[in-house]
Amino acid sequence: MKxxxxxxxxEKVDPVLAQHYGGAILTGLSEDNVVKVKLTGACASCPSAQxxxxxxxxAIVMEEIPEVKDVVLDTSVSEDLIxxxxxxxxxxxx
Length: 94
Fold this sequence. Notes:
Elements: H1 2-18, E1 22-29, E2 34-41, H2 49-64, E3 70-73, H3 79-89
């Protein structure tokens, strides 16, 4: 199912979000078919990201793949970014 979700995100969701200089990537799929999506580009930092997930991404994914039970926004921060922030705070990066 991950391949099917990725295809829907690329072919159906990304063109909509591209109008706002953004995109969406699959970051997880639970055993109970809850999809985790991270927004990219300008959409990643948009204050309306939660509404984008609910109104656009969730609607499209669930219409295309009825087995999906929910689509949620992944707001996690990458480990690379956390490591970089720690180095900056310790004065290791100048």
